[in-house]
Structure to design on (324 residues):
């Protein structure tokens, strides 16, 4: 179908954009830190692969990520910063949940640059941070509380519209997507149907934590080391924000059951914040990232990641949610 072709083209464009972006970051990392960057990239890409099978990634997310890549580069270079709030506004219009999803991939680097730069440069980062935050927050409030889109929408309406569009009769699947995906945010708790999806989601989160313990431990260890190196209150605030920027995702984990989708956002946040620190040459993060990978060679990294790559193929286009 025409939609399937558009979807395929979108994913191919996103794939190219993702790897070009990663290569861009890699090329701007000092030679002595490239091995660290490569191993980190390998870890996060392989672990992220089992969170949410590649071709099933929510389509709005890939457009938001492409805009985020552009903003990320502008922040790194300190040029064309006027693009950043524009991209944030576009992202909020693509998906109203953007402030809880990938917004921190823009705000945290801006916050870091603001507190790290000299006075003249700091002002432009602060202004960009302020405008981006205000514009995105205003759009978020408008879409969730004042938009006409959600008024008059019921389960029956969504089911019928989905059936009309897909030309199938899969009411059970549609009910799952409706109640399992966004019921809390839309206020649909009819007959307690959403309870079973919340319970299922809780089990999924526990399973994912068990699967991801090695990389989660590495992330925790690096951030703990960084915070211990801080010498004053300003540094502690700066690095605490960088370390906890993913916290907004907790709201999505509690309110929506797209577990794999939020996990991918988590992996992307951690991967690109680590890469950001390596590109900028941040002393604390660079030392901690390297120190905690001292015993890991490139060959060992491939061996550690191999089971996760194989698990990605085993899932075969199924959400990790379905494993339970």
């Amino acid at each position: 179908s025409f939609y399937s072709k558009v979807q395929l083209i979108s994913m191919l464009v996103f794939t190219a954009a993702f790897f070009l972006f990663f290569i861009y970051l890699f090329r701007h990392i000092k030679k002595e830190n490239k091995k660290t960057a490569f191993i980190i990239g390998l870890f996060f890409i392989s672990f992220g692969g089992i969170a949410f099978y590649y071709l099933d990634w929510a389509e709005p997310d890939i457009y938001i990520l492409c805009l985020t890549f552009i903003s990320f580069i502008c922040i790194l270079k300190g040029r064309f910063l006027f693009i950043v709030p524009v991209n944030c506004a576009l992202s909020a219009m693509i998906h109203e949940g953007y402030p809880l999803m990938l917004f921190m991939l823009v705000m945290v680097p801006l916050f870091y640059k603001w507190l790290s730069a000299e006075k003249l440069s700091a002002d432009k980062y602060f202004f960009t941070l302020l405008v981006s935050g205000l514009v995105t927050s205003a759009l978020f409030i408008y879409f969730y509380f004042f938009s006409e889109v959600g008024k008059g929408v019921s389960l029956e309406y969504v089911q019928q519209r989905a059936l009309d569009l897909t030309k199938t009769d899969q009411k059970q699947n549609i009910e799952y997507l409706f109640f399992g995906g966004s019921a809390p945010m839309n206020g649909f708790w009819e007959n307690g149907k959403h309870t079973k999806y919340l319970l299922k989601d809780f089990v999924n989160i526990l399973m994912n934590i068990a699967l991801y313990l090695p990389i989660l431990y590495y992330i925790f260890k690096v951030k703990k080391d960084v915070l211990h190196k801080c010498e004053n209150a300003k540094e502690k605030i700066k690095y605490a924000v960088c370390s906890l920027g993913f916290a907004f995702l907790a709201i999505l984990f509690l309110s929506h059951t797209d577990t794999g989708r939020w996990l991918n956002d988590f992996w992307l946040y951690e991967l690109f914040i680590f890469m950001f620190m390596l590109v900028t040459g941040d002393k604390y993060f660079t030392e901690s990232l390297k120190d905690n990978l001292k015993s890991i060679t490139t060959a060992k990294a491939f061996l550690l990641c191999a089971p996760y790559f194989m698990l990605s193929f085993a899932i075969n286009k199924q959400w990790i949610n379905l494993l339970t």
